[in-house]
Write a structure and sequence with these properties.
By secondary structure, the protein is mainly α. It has one domain. The protein is about 70% helix and about 0% strand. Helix 1 crosses helix 3, helix 3 runs antiparallel to helix 7 and helix 5 crosses helix 9. It starts with a helix and ends with a helix. Keywords: Membrane, Transmembrane, Transmembrane helix.
């Protein structure tokens, strides 16, 4: 790793990942613990706030795990996913700015809305600048060539497809998706939840591209924590759910599957050679040495 890349990776942690970890912790408190009271906008149901809070709890776990790493190849999965989240959430906030408290409301919610907006604007600017610097930095190692056996890739691919499809539909057709949602949501609520779904989908694609269980560790802990927290949130707020809807049960199954996929991925981040294709067990040794 070149000195330039090392400095940029340190800047990525100090100026982007660590501040956003603190922000994620605050959102967990407001959304998951306080059920959205004092947030940037009013949710149609406490479950929507708790579900978003589950996403931020998973993101917090991922960021905490990431800031301990020192190489860009180990950080870039979490970095790219977090930057995408900030860009999409900023776009949703601006699209539905009239439904937020940017124009007024209770004093706490008013300042919360402006703080939410300013954090996302600053994060996008800083994140893009640092990303450009990393992409232009010399001496970056190539991705590890450790193909996985199919049954270890399949669950992550399923998350990619489901997250991508649900996220795109929620962002493109929020009204139609909200009408089918198994608990009360507004267009803004479903768009924000759609952002999380799409980020999980894209993050899963990035994880598959990395092709290395160690580098996928931070994504796995995100899966595990977010999925488990979402199931707990749904059980706590079960009275808000339309359990006659098939989508409610599909959602529960999807979140349980997400948590289990994360748990397996976390366990796989041990001896990677146990999960590699037999044809490529020896080849990665040279690539690991260069990393």
């Amino acid at each position: 790793m070149s000195p330039i890349e090392r400095d940029l990776t340190a800047a990525s942690r100090g100026a982007f990942l660590i501040p956003l970890a603190y922000c994620a912790g605050l959102q967990v408190l407001v959304l998951l613990v306080l059920s959205g009271r004092g947030f940037a906008w009013d949710f149609r149901s406490s479950l929507s706030a708790a579900t978003m809070g589950a996403g931020y709890l998973g993101g917090l776990a991922m960021l905490v795990a990431t800031v301990r790493l020192r190489r860009w190849v180990d950080v870039r999965l979490a970095y790219g996913s977090t930057l995408l989240l900030m860009v999409l959430m900023l776009a949703v906030t601006l699209r539905y700015r009239g439904a937020t408290h940017l124009g007024g409301g209770e004093i706490v919610s008013f300042f919360s809305a402006w703080g939410w907006l300013l954090v996302h604007v600053a994060a996008v600017i800083v994140g893009v600048v640092l990303l450009i610097g990393q992409l232009r930095a010399p001496g970056r190692p190539s991705p590890r060539a450790e193909p996985r056996v199919w049954f270890t890739v399949l669950p992550v691919a399923v998350v990619a497809v489901i997250g991508g499809v649900v996220g795109l539909l929620a962002l493109a057709f929020p009204g139609r998706v909200a009408a089918q949602w198994p608990w009360p949501v507004s267009d803004l609520d479903v768009s924000a939840l759609g952002v999380w779904a799409l980020v999980f989908g894209v993050g899963s694609v990035l994880a598959i591209r990395e092709g290395d269980s160690d580098r996928q560790r931070v994504g796995a802990i995100n899966y595990l924590v977010a999925g488990a927290a979402a199931v707990v949130a749904m059980l706590v707020h079960a009275g808000e759910v339309d359990w006659s809807s098939a989508y409610a049960w599909m959602y529960v199954i999807a979140m349980i599957g997400l948590a289990l996929t994360g748990a397996v991925g976390w366990l796989m981040a041990g001896p990677a050679e146990l999960w590699t294709s037999p044809r490529r067990i020896e080849a990665p040794a040279r690539i690991r040495a260069s990393d």
